[in-house]
Amino acid sequence: xxxxxxxxxxxxxxxxxxxxxxxxxxxxxxxxxxxxxxxxxxxxxxxxxxxxxxxxxxxxxxxxxxxxxxxxxxxxxxxxxxxxxxxxxxxxxxxxxxxxxxxxxxxxxxxxxxxxxxxxxxxxxxxxxxxxxxxxxxxxxxxxxxxxxxxxxxxxxxxxxxxxxxxxxxxxx
Amino acid sequence: xxxxxxxxxxxxxxxxxxxxxxxxxxxxxxxxxxxxxxxxxxxxxxxxxxxxxxxxxxxxxxxxxxxxxxxxxxxxxxxxxxxxxxxxxxxxxxxxxxxxxxxxxxxxxxxxxxxxxxxxxxxxxxxxxxxxxxxxxxxxxxxxxxxxxxxxxxxxxxxxxxxxxxxxxxxxxxxxxxxxxxxxxxxxxx
Lengths: 173, 190
What we know:
The complex is a heterodimer. By secondary structure, chain A is an all-alpha fold. Chain A is about 80% helix and about 0% strand. The relative contact order of chain A is 0.12. In chain B, helix 1 (about 5-20) packs across helix 2 (about 25-35), helix 1 (about 5-20) crosses helix 4 and helix 3 packs across helix 4. The relative contact order of chain B is 0.11.
């Protein structure tokens, strides 16, 4: 399989692992694109996630970053389409039948069953990013301060993320 | 629920997609279609929101798809998804090209490192917020903790983890004759 097709295939199945938020799929994505296929380095992966945070739209657009780093524009296109189009098509199909499906007890049970798994996956995603992005006392402190500010709702997320950037720049992190 | 003209739908989702960066994106959609325009009720929005937590795939685009479908049919689903994805994709592509061309100037690297640390804070906060809604059934905290340990520190393949944890979790939430059904994880939109 050519590497471009492999890229598309990888993001296709990664997109279907994103249960309960894209964050949950981060550990597996990092394993695939950094450790297994070497499309980006660990540091570039964190940089790409930060750039995706800076862009409007979902963070899973990071697929476009990885695709571009691996194969230029065709890579970005293939990775982006693989990440979003099949999952969105499935969502549209299920949205059509949802109201009748929802009355079945097992479907309701599945809703409840997926919630804690989604939460565990998300926490795993936070752990994966923490391991690369928090590497000294300063970055650890910055993450905690950002957490506290966001928890109290003092500032919107984008402002906190940008201020974190300014703090890193001032401190030469 | 009301039907909305496709052009109007695309206009609203484009604006919402463009203004929603840095996390908490579902909240922006809630504001746009429920609070400001009354296109959907809170309950209708929550149904779509829960559906998207169950569905595989990136949440935000799935939410746009299901809301778009409710408001304007199949065309609405496609239009809503494109509206929230394409602008961000273009912006990120431009940022990526710049990142790749210039390498990273020392200043930009410090900036990105600071941002990365702040993003960690954001992720921790999001996980903490969602914990309240997700841990309603007794035993759910064990499922969440095992899932976290497997995909985080132990680095086990996520597909395998979901395959093992889902039956286990279903045991806890399975339909029962006598006991009332556990409430679906419909926490209020963030």
